[in-house]
Known about the structure:
Blueprint: E1 2-5, H1 20-42, E2 53-60, H2 71-74, H3 76-86, E3 93-99, E4 107-112
Parallel strand pairs: 2-3
Antiparallel strand pairs: 1-4, 2-4
Helix pairs in contact: 1-3
Amino acid sequence: MIMLPFPSSVLAGHANSNGQWAKINATKKHREDAKSATQSYFGTAPKVPDGDIVITVTFYPPNDLGDRINFPNRMKPYFDGIADALKVNDKRFLPVFRFMDPEKPGRVEVEIGT
């Protein structure tokens, strides 16, 4: 299982007031974090199935303030980083989202192929 920090609200689709550079920097950091975590978990030569890749994402938000509808939108940089590490196009991902009760400090657990 790949464990990642809960994605920043800066990445939400409606987060326009945060400024362009804040979103660009957050996107780059989240993508690199996901790539690094995926490589740590799978190594540099991961074995991936043919066809669709089921990717189960379990959200543990840090508090009750977020909007579940926006949580998956914040995952795009993470999906890109995971795809980079797996050396696949993220269009193959078939995501399944699970939403859990808040836990400090918040996290996202990603399972590949389950």
